[in-house]
Amino acid sequence: MFFANTLKNHQTVYELCSQYIKLKAPLMRHNTVANYGTTLKIIAGSSIGPLKVKDITKTKAKLFLSSLQNEEGRSFPMIRNIRGVLRPAFEQAVDDGIIRYNPFDFELKSVVRSDIGRRYALTEDELKEFLTYVHEHKQSSKYYDLFYLQFHTGLRVSELCGLTDSDLHFDENYISVTRQLQRKRTMELYLTPPKTRSGIRKVPMTTNVATCLRHILSTRPPALALYTVHGSSQIPDARGFLFFDKNNMPYVAQTVENHYRTVSNAFYKHMHYDKDKPITSHVARHTFCSLRVKEGMNPVTLQHIMGHSSIRTTLGWYTHLTDTDVISEALSVMNKDTKSEKYYNADNITLNMLK
User: Fold this and answer.
1) Rounded CA gap, 199 and 156, in Å?
2) Which residue ranges of the chain lie beneath pLDDT 50?
3) Contact at 8 Å (CB) between 193 and 199?
4) Which fold is adopted by the domain 2-110?
5) 29: burial class by Cβ within 10 Å (0-12, 13-18, 19+)?
6) pLDDT (tens digit, 9 = 90+) per residue, 183-206?
7) What span, in angstroms and rounded, lies between the C-alpha atoms of 303 and 286?
8) Which superfamily, per CATH, for 124-331?
9) Where in the chain are the domains?
């Protein structure tokens, strides 16, 4: 017992974090484990890694995270990931009686500036201009269906890659979202459930989206429809994917992002478009959400379509409305109110009284 307590008293921050990740790994997805491995390497090579857990104070914790940004130039998301390992690891140390309180239990933004850029979304006119360019441009037109589908369904890029024939319900006008297609660093393809439980959903299929999907299916080589990615205990095998690369492999997120980058760079050059406003798969999803907000879609309905686990995420898009958007939407709704009584000015009222 004395020996065990002695070991705990001498446990380093790196050892604690390594132990925490080892315990959590069986419950994590492959990409999450890989990301945690990267985070652990940073902690191992940092000034705090070799320090004893019991010697870390809240001040030392804050100074360490601050130095990652101010001295090492690391981004806010990376620092957030590092703290995302340190805080629960130290909470584990509290539970084990090694320390009395968690020195990493504080608001990250109190010591680190957020450098996360604003979420971009195209306006209706910008979207039309971009898709028209893609459709009419010889080299880019082969990606038109891909871009059109994401901009008009709001699917996450890995969900888009994971779509198969069985997910397309043309008679009922919806698309089932039940899986994501991803790729390991070994290049092996694998399937996972959507990002959250809310990610399992049905997305409306408009007439134009249905036409787009039918075109994708009609132009896909028949042999590729048989390509199968094996699942797991969580998710069954799948085949009948919609998009394939030049090596006859189903698209993954990186493939889609590369196409967006190539086409958007050409678009910037030929159309003199503002390069400070990116066009990516994230922008496509954000654009879908933003345009539905401006159309006045019910927030709860939109939350379900987007697969947001929190209504706060969906409502965040209402902050993107301009004064013009607000007035236009409000009038379009209020002018439909046929139950309100007609307004009469003073002269009309007087005339009516005299009759």
Assistant:
1) 9
2) 1-6, 349, 351, 354
3) yes
4) DNA polymerase; domain 1 (1.10.150)
5) middle
6) 987 889 999 988 788 899 999 999
7) 12
8) Intergrase catalytic core (1.10.443.10)
9) 2-110, 124-331
